Structure formats: C-alpha cells, structure tokens
Amino acid sequence: MQSLYTNRAQAYIKMGKYVEAISDCEWALKCNDKCIKAYVHMGKAYLELKQYHESRNCFKKVVEIEPGKEKMVKEYLTQVDLEEERESQEINARKEFDKGEGKAITVPQLLEKLSKPCQMPFYYCGGLEILTQAISDCTTGQTLFRLNNGFSIISSNDTVRSSLLQKTKDPNSQELCVSVLKLWRVICCGNDENQKILMTCPVFRQSIVHLVTMENVAVQQECLALLCLYSKMPHGRRLAIDNLNVQILVRNLMTYTSKSKKQKNTVGNILENFAAENRT
C-alpha cells in the first residue's frame, strides 16, 4: 500500500502539487514508518515549498534509517542549502533595490543600456567594464545581475557571441571577449546560483573549452581564472563535469605544458581538482 502513496506523491511533485505530495507521504509513513521513498519525496516537496527546515529533517531521516544512503542525502542537503541561499540573496537584493540605493540601481540601468543590439564591440566592451565594476562595488550586485536578466542579455547578444566564438580576429572583438570573461568571473565568484546559470548558457559551454587555446594571452588568463574558480569547490566542479566536454577541455589544457610556470601551475591545479571530483 505504501508504494501507491509514494508513487502518487512523486506524480504530485511533477504536477506541482506539493501539499498533496506531502499528505501522501505521510500516509505512506503510517503504513511503514521507515519508508525511505516517502521521506525523500516529502523532502523534495518541502523544498519546493521553501520550507527548508522541514526538508532537511526529511532527508536526514533517510540516513538514520539507512546509513548507506549518506552520499545521496548529502547531495539533497546541498540542494536545500543552495536554494535557501539563493532565496536569501534575492530577498536582500530586492530590498536594496526598493530602497533606491544608488549602487543597486546602477546594475539594472547598465544592463538596460547593454541590451541595445547592433552596437560596435567597443560600445559593449566599455559597458561591460563599467558593469563589472558596478557589480563588484555593490553587495547585492551579483544577485541583481541575475534578477535583471543579465545572463540572457549578455549571452544572446550577437556581437558578444561572435567575440566568444572568435568568428573574427579583430582586436576589438578579442578585447570584448576578455571583458565578458571578466564579467562572468566576477558574477560567479562565491555565488553558486550564478555558477549554475552560467553553465546553462549554450554560448558559454560552447566557447570556454576552446578559448583556452587562444593565442591572446589576456583571453587565456581569464579562461583559466574562470575554470579555476569552478574547480575549487565541489558544486562548481560537478557543474563543469556535467556540462562541459571534459575530454576536449582536458586535451586543450594539456597544451599549456609549454607555457609559463604560472599558467602551468594554474592548469595543474584545475586538472587535479577535477580529477579529485571524479574519484569521489
């Protein structure tokens, strides 16, 4: 009988009926108070309802019942932490924006200007440099960038895309490429949600693995800095491994054996971090 309740709970979650899912899980637990599926589905439903404490308790209960599920539960608890952090960031960012704080208003204003299509590369390059600094100067800048459609505005811009995919060797285009990479590094530094969103941008996934082989030293440095950022934490490493063509990336990184000592050390750290993630 418990399987009927847990199966229906799973269906309810897919339909967005989280309260109903929790109710079915509770009935399943009345049939079997050690039903792991019930606790897992209930934890997911509570997470969707932003009831983080209850969600954590459900997932922790799984380990109490079956210690061998520790790795799975750890992943679920990480999801809860990330979602709670994301919500907190966005609440604080909206409060700061609603207060009319100058630094908070600047980020959306700059994004609006950068949304203008068909401008010359130096227009976007200058705008991105100013935007990057504005985000650095604002405590909620990273979140405001996300809330104001920043990822879409930047990644869907044809001029920006052309620079990232290196369809031209024009110096202005290469400078724009560097500016975009700097921006991405700033908005992703210490921000798990932004790291996740950037990895969903097709132009990022398509370009980053190849840009590391560019002859332009500034492009190389920014690519390595961004990859290094992702490689430092488990969440970032998993995002990179799951979304990038790791075989091509590793092959391209191996070309740095003839580069400067600093670059070789950076590449070595990146490869070592990714290898460690694969072993876990």
From TrEMBL:
<dbReference type="InterPro" id="IPR016024">
    <property type="entry name" value="ARM-type_fold"/>
</dbReference>
<keyword id="KW-0802">TPR repeat</keyword>
<feature type="repeat" description="TPR">
    <location>
        <begin position="36"/>
        <end position="69"/>
    </location>
</feature>
<dbReference type="InterPro" id="IPR011990">
    <property type="entry name" value="TPR-like_helical_dom_sf"/>
</dbReference>
<dbReference type="Pfam" id="PF00515">
    <property type="entry name" value="TPR_1"/>
</dbReference>
<dbReference type="InterPro" id="IPR011989">
    <property type="entry name" value="ARM-like"/>
</dbReference>
<dbReference type="Pfam" id="PF13181">
    <property type="entry name" value="TPR_8"/>
</dbReference>
<dbReference type="InterPro" id="IPR019734">
    <property type="entry name" value="TPR_rpt"/>
</dbReference>
<dbReference type="GO" id="GO:0005737">
    <property type="term" value="C:cytoplasm"/>
</dbReference>
<protein>
    <submittedName>
        <fullName>Tetratricopeptide repeat protein 12</fullName>
    </submittedName>
</protein>
<dbReference type="GO" id="GO:0070286">
    <property type="term" value="P:axonemal dynein complex assembly"/>
</dbReference>
<dbReference type="InterPro" id="IPR043195">
    <property type="entry name" value="TTC12"/>
</dbReference>
<dbReference type="GO" id="GO:0007288">
    <property type="term" value="P:sperm axoneme assembly"/>
</dbReference>
<dbReference type="GO" id="GO:0005813">
    <property type="term" value="C:centrosome"/>
</dbReference>
